[in-house]
Each structure stands twice: as C-alpha cells, then as structure tokens.
C-alpha cells in the first residue's frame, strides 16, 4: 500500500469520525450507506469535506459508484493523482 | 425476496404513520373550499402549507379562462409538442412569459420538475460541468443525473465555495453551468445572487436561476430574486413553475440566448411527454396577467409572511434565517415534527412535515407556506394554534424539552 493511499485513508477516516454522530469501527470494507447509516445527502456532505482537505473535485457520478470506504479511497487517490 | 423488500425499513415507518392515522405524506382533502380553507377528516381546516402564494386558484378570471379554453379547445392535447403539434395558446403563453421577463425566448414544460430536468440535462452535455448548490431541489439533482455532464456540489449559498470549486475545474475543458434557486423551498432562505453573479463572470461560467418559489414573490415587478438583486443580465436562463404563484401546473424557461429554440429538439423531458391541456395553459396565462396587474397581491403575501415569521419567532421557535412565504420551524426530531404536525391538523391547521434527505443538514422541519389570500386574522389564528400545541407538547423553548435539545 502506497504512502499516498495511507495518507488519504487517514484523512477520510478522521473526517468520518468527526461527522458520525456515534463512533463506529472503520475499515476499507465498511459500507458507507449500510454500515454507517448515512443518507445520500450526508454522504455528499462528507465527500465535500474530503474534496476540500485534498483540494480535488469528486464528481457526483463517481460518488454514486462508491460503496465501501476502500472504493472511496481508491477513487480519491485516482483523482488526486490526475489533479 | 420480493421486489419491494428493499424498501422494508421505510415501509415500516410509513405503516406506523398510517396506523397512527397521522401521515403527513398522504393527506386526503375531503373538499377544498378556497385558497386558504379545506375540509380534512370532516373538519374545517386552515391551509398553511399549499404554496398557493398569490391565492389565485379561485380567482374568477383565472377560472373563467380555464373553462372557456376547455369548451373551445377540448380537455387535452393528447400528445407532445414535437410529435403532435403545438396549440396557439402554448405559443401565446411562451410569448407572455418572455415578455414578462423581457427576454427573447420562452419555453413551456409540462411540470416545474420537468423544466429543471429539461433545461439542466440539455444545457450541460458530455465534457461540461454542472455546479449545484448543495441544498438544491430534487428536480435539479435529477436533471443533473439525466444529462452527461460532470456534477460538482458547492456549499449552500456560499459564493466563496463556488469560486473555490470553479478554480479546481479551471483547467478542465467544457462549459461550466451554475444552478441556484431564488428562494430555497425548505427553509425559505434566498441566494446571495449578486455575489454568485460576480463569481460566474470571473470564471466565465453560465448561470441558471430557478425562481420556482420566488416568482410573484420577489422583485419590483414580481419576476423573482434575479430582478430584486439586479443581476438579470447575468442569469443566462431563468426557470420556474406554474404550480405556485401561477396557480396551475407546468414549468418554464426564459432566456436571451441565441439559438435557444434548438432545446426543443434536444431536451428529452420537453419532447417525450404530453403538452399541457388548454385549460391549464389559459389559466396560467390569466394568472400571469393577474400577477402583473395586481402588485398588491405580492405586498399582501409578504406582509403575511413577515407576520407569521415574527409571530413564530416571538413564541420561541427556531426558524429559517429570513422571513419569506416559506416559514419552517426546526423541530428537535422527526418524531416531534410528526407529533406537532398531527396536533395542529387536529386543531384545524394544515402544515407540512419535511425530513432528511429532502432537508439540509438532517433537519426535521414543520413547514408552513403563506398566501396573499390569508387574512391577518387567519395568520394570527395559526400563530395561536402553534402556541397552544407547542405548549401542550412541551416543545416551546421555555419548557425543558426544546431547551435540552438545543
């Protein structure tokens, strides 16, 4: 696993911990909707925080494809590398 | 596994509301009596949640126009404008809307929802970028999904956040199209349009303003927030609806953009649906004439809005940031919103419940909308009912429940 992926994972987990009403175990296989109980708007709000922390743009259709935190980390890493 | 099992958790909640006999998402009106009154569950009920901003649904001239059009041109067009032809009245309404807005082109859609679907999906194509306010109405999100542009969300009412996101996209090819609303339907707040227009100019983007809740409400002649903010020249497209101030159903777009007629053959929500029936077109045209001829309706509406907002604020309710015809009280939980709503209805006052994800920031809202047709006495009666119910349920701030929730 690259340093960049680890760094992105840390940022995503840290942002999620701040956004979730109660603490939950987080891993790459965590399902964002089913396991974390976030609704569609809450997911978009959370991704907005990630966009700002990494200064990237995550289009909504890319968010729609993401199911797990691992998917999100991979998507964000691809976008960061392309930026 | 049955087809609808995926909705099981939602279905359980819905059933619970039905069984309690208080489902705000399925209210039968036995009879509608006027723009402000109906019979619900056998009770005379004051309507404070129907978006009937100018109260024109029972205007004699509007009704007369609808009746005459049905008699003369029949009940339905039985097809789409593209495949089955336009009636003269469709063209006349489009010209009247263009004239009202001082624009070259007007285009009528069969609902306000479809106006957003049709304009947003057609304006931004593959390789283009849509920038949506985070609190946008579902029709804006759905329009974005229908098209092929990349979609970026910016923080609600934040021109700085929009600028930041346009900066990130600055090196990407394709047109950038910004979508904002005049008045947001959940909390009744207005967009900082002057600042958004400045950002739009700085980044060479296009701007679409949805005036669904601000047409007939804001601006010197009632055209909406773009008029009030003095930035109509920056609003490349205005979209709106006939189902609020104009007392009918349908939607529209107006623009000065050269070649805009091409949208009629590329906008699928315009092409592949039946056009509005003659009665509805004629009623909308008559309502638009009333809107233009009677600015006092707008004055009455805004006075009622200010009266309700002030009254509820004085009682201690937490409301949206500014007075508008949409007045929403923030409830501590969905359960509190349901309870409050049901108690008001029982007392003879109809309002709305709005819940996430339709609302911003996970808020549970008890939403009201006022009309020019309300009398000050009706507004005061509504405020008194809010006070009685709020005290009865322990949901007013001098009582522990809400204070603790804050």
Query: Based on the structure given, which CATH architecture of chain A is correct?
Result: Orthogonal Bundle
Number of helices of chain B: 15
Spell out the helices and strands of chain B N to C. Answer: HEEEHHHEHEHEHEHEHEEHHHEHEEEHH
Strand order of the largest sheet of chain B: 4-10-9-8-7-5-6
Order of helices and strands of chain A: HHHH
Beta-strand portion of chain A reads under 5%
Number of helices of chain A: 4
Broad shape of chain A = globular
CA gyration radius of chain B, whole angstroms: 22 Å
Span from first to last CA of chain A? 20 Å
The CATH homology group name of chain A: ACP-like
Q: How would you sum up the major sheet of chain A? A: none
Number of strands of chain B: 14
GO molecular function (chain B): pyridoxal phosphate binding; transferase activity
Cofactor (chain B): pyridoxal 5'-phosphate
Pfam families (chain B): Aminotran_1_2
Protein name (chain B): Alpha-oxoamine synthase/8-amino-7-oxononanoate synthase
Which key terms come to mind for this protein?
heterodimer, A: 83 residues, mainly alpha, Non-ribosomal Peptide Synthetase Peptidyl Carrier Protein, Chain A, 0% strand, globular, B: 406 residues, alpha/beta, Aspartate Aminotransferase, domain 1, Aspartate Aminotransferase, domain 2, 2 domains, seven-stranded mixed β-sheet, four-stranded mixed β-sheet, 41% helix, disordered C terminus
Give an overview of the whole structure.
- Chain A contains 4 helices and no strands.
- Chain A is mainly α.
- Chain A has a single domain (about 5-80), classed as Non-ribosomal Peptide Synthetase Peptidyl Carrier Protein, Chain A (Orthogonal Bundle).
- In chain A, helix 1 crosses helix 2 and helix 1 (about 5-20) crosses helix 4 (about 70-80).
- The mean pLDDT of chain A is about 90.
- With about 400 residues, chain B is an alpha/beta fold.
- Chain B folds into 2 domains: about 10-45 and about 295-405, Aspartate Aminotransferase, domain 1; about 60-295, Type I PLP-dependent aspartate aminotransferase-like (Major domain) (Aspartate Aminotransferase, domain 2, 3-Layer(aba) Sandwich), CATH 3.40.640.
- In chain B, about 40% of the residues lie in helices and about 15% in strands.
- Chain B has a 7-stranded mixed β-sheet with strand order 4-10-9-8-7-5-6, sandwiched between helices. In chain B, strands 1-2-3-12 form a 4-stranded mixed β-sheet.
- The model of chain B is unreliable at about 400-405 (pLDDT under 50).
- The chains are: A mainly alpha (about 80), B alpha/beta (about 400).
- The interface between A and B is medium-sized, with 16 and 17 residues.
